[in-house]
Structures are given as C-alpha cells and as structure tokens.
Amino acid sequence: GRESEADESTYNEIIQKERRDTITVLSQNPAYRIIDGFMVNKNTKTALFRSDFTKSELRIPDDVETIGSHCIAESCLFCKKDSFLKKLVISSSVRKINSFGFSECDELESVIYEGLTKDLTIAEDAFDNCALFRKNGCDIICKDSKETIQAKRRTTNSMIRRLKLINLLVKRGE
C-alpha cells in the first residue's frame, strides 16, 4: 500500500511539473496565451487545456471557437478534490467541442452554453466517462433549452450520484 501511494505521489509531481513546463514553453510563443484560466491558441481560436486549477467554476472565454480534445480531462488533474471542475459556462463564440473535450469529469454538474443548440457541434465522445453527462453532451443546457429538460436532468443526476455513493460504500464493505 505505501509503495503505491509513494509512486502515485511521485507521478503526480511529475505530471504537475510537466504541466508547468508546457505552460512556460507555450507562453513564449505569441500564438498561445492564458485567457481566463485556459491555454488558448489564438490562431485557431482553440481552448487547449485548463490552466487554472484553483476554481471549481470557470467560463470558456469569448473569442474561443473550439474546445480542444482533452481540454478538461479531470483524470489528469492530480490535486485536491475541491478543485475539480463542477460548473462550466461556454461562451456563445464556441461552435465546436472536440472528442474527449471533457474526459472523466465526474464532478462536473453543470455545463451552460450561452448560444443556441443548433450553433454548437459536439463530438460523439466529447463527454466520455463523465458521470453526469451522456457521451455526446446532449445534456448541455443551451440558451434555447426547455425548463422541463433541465428539471428532468436534475433528477437523473441525483440518482446517478446516489448510485455512485452506494457503489463506493459497497466497495469499502460498509
């Protein structure tokens, strides 16, 4: 048990160092800039990855048109549980979410798109392995979403949350 904890701790430190190094290198290139907690390629108008791991609520900045693959991959986030992303607002400038844009985001409860449903293209596996969202992201609340759909989703989310808790307790033998 202790060896695996030490290995995991060392692995987490390596991942965090690599992330810092990547940010340092990309920041030297004028095409890349950190905007509102995201590393953004200004030429392709793509949010590449989350750079701010201190907030559980973020907003994809204006002018971003694409959420890149693995932009918010919480399985790669090795830090405190309270810094996992829970709420995300996507500006209406975004038109596309790539494959695995949100990967294993188990704490993500709410994704709100400030535009209309028809204006956003979502990859079939954009929300792969997210506990509260279907793979294709059809659970995103858009400007034109109906209230009844949102109410139904809340019920579904709490049921899934309960099942996850029950599963965890059973695994622990409680």
State the main characteristics.
174 residues; four-stranded parallel β-sheet; 30% helix; 21% strand
Give a short synopsis of this structure.
The chain is an alpha/beta fold.
Summarize the topology.
Layout: H1 2-27, E1 32-35, E2 38-41, E3 46-50, E4 57-60, E5 66-67, E6 72-73, E7 87-90, E8 96-97, E9 102-103, E10 110-113, E11 121-122, E12 141-142, H2 147-172
Parallel strand pairs: 3-5, 4-7, 5-8, 6-9, 7-10, 8-11, 10-12
Antiparallel strand pairs: 1-2, 2-3
Your description of this structure?
It is a single chain. By secondary structure, the protein is of the alpha/beta class. Helices cover 30% and strands 21% of the residues. It is built from 2 helices and 12 strands. Strands 1-2-3-5-8-11 form a 6-stranded mixed sheet, with helices on one face. The chain has a 4-stranded parallel sheet with strand order 4-7-10-12, with no helix packed on it. β1 and β2 (38-41) form a beta hairpin. It is flat. The protein starts with a helix and ends with a helix. The model has no long low-confidence stretch (mean pLDDT 84).
Strand order of the largest sheet: 1-2-3-5-8-11
Name the quaternary structure: single chain
SS-based structural class? alpha/beta
How many strands, which pairing sense, and closed or not: the largest β-sheet?
A: 6 strands, mixed
DSSP E strands, number = 12
Strand content: 15-25%
Query: Radius of gyration, Cα only, in angstroms?
Result: 17 Å
